[in-house]
Write a structure and sequence with these properties.
Shape: globular
Largest sheet: 7 strands, mixed
CATH class of the largest domain: Alpha Beta
CATH topology of the largest domain: Rossmann fold
Strand content: 15-25%
CATH architecture of the largest domain: 3-Layer(aba) Sandwich
Number of strands: 9
Structural class: alpha/beta
Helix content: 40-55%
Length: 355
């Protein structure tokens, strides 16, 4: 441990300033969940309001609303006008926090973050035992938050850029194709594709029974019927078939045996079929991932993804920041011969693999 004489106080002051900022962000995250669940963001987005006016507008208790608004203003999530005593949200704040159909909506991501705190004792114990913590062992807010947060990115990119980046896939989907969505969770990606391509048949698979139940409900709520179904099965248990497209959205790295899963997926495909692998964005070298996105993904990987993999057979522990080079190695070991990066966003790598 460094002695007082060894400390550079200028550096210490800067570091403590960073820590205070991070502590403030960590504490205020819970209030984002409150704002999203209670409808406060949506209510404030309708127009400027005092705490009393917003409480009346949202049907909530004013004293809580007043304190919540002060915290939101301190965070910069809402604006405060001292002359009028009113709070407001600009179009950018509204897009991120109040409009669930926006391509940059992030409020529900804080439920994923919340699950990390709730499940921390399990993960800390796993550090000592070396055992895994399965996806199904987490608090339900992880499943809920993942569906809503990931759906934002899928809505913004899946139909407009990711599928078109794959060689000949959109044409097949328009004519009529068989598609498997492995590790579909609550079915956000499956439902989007099935709604866009009514001539094709989509089946979502996930080992987590409650997620499959939710996926079926979500499809009904979206009015997507007739060409979609959901079944309980792990990646290596999904039934064989001549699929034109098999997709894995942000889940291969969670699997205990991603090589075996990819090999099974290869066997599910037609000879001219396509495996679309969507994974969290990462550079191949650690030093290139030491940034805010990498910080978020490494943290999520420590609390969710790596423990999930270590809880399963093989337990490779690929991690959410594997990077294109390591993912390509996995796919080659599984028998894929044509592999390329088809598209990317600041948050995702989209890899096309063919037998």
């Amino acid at each position: 441990m460094a002695t007082a004489a060894a400390i550079d106080h200028t550096k210490l002051e800067a570091f403590m300033g960073k820590m205070i900022g991070d502590m403030s962000a960590a504490m205020s995250g819970a209030l984002v969940i409150v704002g999203a669940k209670s409808g406060l963001y949506k209510a404030l987005a309708r127009g400027r309001a005092t705490s009393a006016e917003l409480a009346e507008r949202s049907g909530l208790f004013e004293r809580y609303v007043r304190e919540w608004l002060a915290a939101q203003a301190a965070s910069g999530f809402v604006d405060y006008d001292a002359d009028s005593g009113r709070y407001s949200m600009g179009p950018e704040q509204t897009a991120a926090l109040a409009d669930s159909n926006s391509p940059v909506y992030v409020a529900d991501a804080f439920e994923v973050i919340s699950s990390a705190y709730i499940d921390e004792p399990k993960i800390t114990a796993a550090f000592k035992s070396g055992r895994g913590v399965g996806w199904h062992e987490h608090h339900e807010c992880l499943f809920r938050g993942t569906e809503r947060f990931f759906r934002t990115g899928y809505r913004a990119n899946l139909l407009s850029s990711w599928l078109p980046a794959l060689d000949g896939v959109v044409e097949k989907l328009e004519r009529g194709a068989r598609v498997a969505d492995i590790g579909c969770g609550h079915g956000a990606s499956t439902i989007l594709m099935a709604g866009a391509f009514p001539n094709s048949r989509f089946t979502g698979y996930d080992y987590h029974d409650p997620s499959i139940e939710r996926a079926r409900q979500a499809a009904e709520e979206a009015g997507v019927r007739g060409n979609i179904s959901f079944e309980v099965a792990s990646a290596k248990e999904a039934p064989p078939g001549d699929f034109d497209l098999v997709a894995c959205f942000d889940c291969l790295h969670d699997m205990g045996d991603p090589v075996g899963a990819s090999r099974h997926i290869r066997e599910m495909l037609k000879p001219d079929g396509t495996f679309m692998l969507v994974e969290p964005f990462a550079h191949d070298e650690l030093t290139d991932n030491l940034n805010p996105v990498g910080r978020m993904f490494y943290s999520a990987s420590t609390m969710i993804c790596t423990p999930a993999s270590l809880s399963q057979e093989v337990g490779l522990g690929l991690g959410a920041q594997a990077g294109e080079r390591r993912l390509t190695e996995v796919l080659k070991e599984a028998g894929f011969t044509r592999i390329r990066r088809a598209a990317e966003t600041p948050f995702n790598l989209i890899i096309e693999a063919r037998p």
